[in-house]
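Following up on my earlier thread - several people asked me to post the actual chain instead of describing it. Fair enough. Here it is, all 193 residues.
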Amino acid sequence: MTIEIMQNTTNWEGYLNAFEEILSANPAPAPYDNPAYLEYVKLNHSRQKRWLKLGVVSPAVIEEIKKISSPQTWYIITEPWCGDAAHSIPFLKLMSAHNPLITLKIVWRDTAPFMIENYLTNGGKSVPKVIVRNDQGSDLFTWGPRPTPCQQIYLEMKENNTPFEEQKITLQNWYNNDKGVTLQNEMIQLINS
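Reply from S.P.:
Thanks for posting it. Predicted structure:
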């Protein structure tokens, strides 16, 4: 699929600055004027900082990333309120840093134009969603919104009407135990396919 590049993108620094702006605003902008959303941003900011500091990209993954020989842009569709993004995006950033041919761009899900409309998951706007494009603007592959085993757990909980708080804790535990390994492996499988 080739889709025109969206104008609602930012770079890594802009993404990090969005968290700072939301957390320092008084009052916070919508939807973060809702205390629950503001709490999500605080948690996600903390989790993201932790993964950026402690996250490890495996040597095998680094080796594969370094083999990428032509320019790619990794578009990550997300929002600061997204809990899954706080566990995935730091690893995508750490991975992309190992090859100067990879450009990382953040696309806001809830800001027009809506790139997410072209990358729905089971009809929904689930994020984070990664779209990897070549330098001609053609999609090479997509990934997201969660590593496959985590997505399966999520879908089972949703089907079983598991309470939201329990879902959050279960997914949080999965991410903490996995430490970004599954995401890295899935990305490399896609890069090599």
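Confidence is low (pLDDT under 50) at residues 1-5. That should answer part of your original question.
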